[in-house]
Amino acid sequence: PGDQEAGELGLAAVPGRQAAFRQGLEAAVHYARAVGCPRIHVMAGRVPLGTDRAAVAGEMETTFIENLRYAADLLSQEDMIGLLEPINNRITDPRYYLNTPHQAAAILEKVGRPNLKLQLDLFHCQIMDGNLSRNLETYFPLIGHIQIAQVPARHEPDSPGELNFPYIFELLESLGYTGYVGCEYAPKGDTLEGLGWLRSYWESRGLQHGGTSKAAK
């Protein structure tokens, strides 16, 4: 993430911070190797303070592409995947550079490396664009990880909000998604209590605790 005390949130697209980006990436690879995690979120970073987004967009994209190619080469040596996550700039972070799956897909196409994928957080995607069914279908070949949270409060999937997660989960299954779904939400209370939504979802699908089939038992 860079120097968070200085207001940084990633470095990959920040001009002039290439050396720090490479140092941070090497540290991330070291940690990922130690815990057996094959995916690393390569954070784009924020538009520098005092600059206009449109004025620096070209330079930031050039920096981003250069750093992503470097990252892809390094990660390929470790058999790891780099992930790009669009973060909404309407609510969560007004200065974050990478905001939509469309922007991320365009960057990925320009970089052209198979071990770089889209980390699609449906919370951010809904806020920026909505149209989740079509976006999931369109960008499915690029997706390397999914994250979820209810909109707008960013709580558990079964909390009041805009998203119909049972439908979304079934859509992901129908598309053939076999990866993890990250619970990127803030629990309203206790973490374990908040996971009650998952037990309820399993039961609605005829599954037992842990996602195993009752019929198989």
Automatic annotation (TrEMBL):
A Pfam family per the record: AP_endonuc_2
Xylose isomerase-like TIM barrel domain span: 10-200
Gene3D superfamilies hit by this protein: Divalent-metal-dependent TIM barrel enzymes
Keywords tagged on the record: Isomerase
Family of this protein: Belongs to the hyi family.
Family annotation (PANTHER family): HYDROXYPYRUVATE ISOMERASE-RELATED, ISOMERASE
Protein's name according to its UniProt entry: Putative hydroxypyruvate isomerase
Originating species: Irena cyanogastra
Gene: Hyi
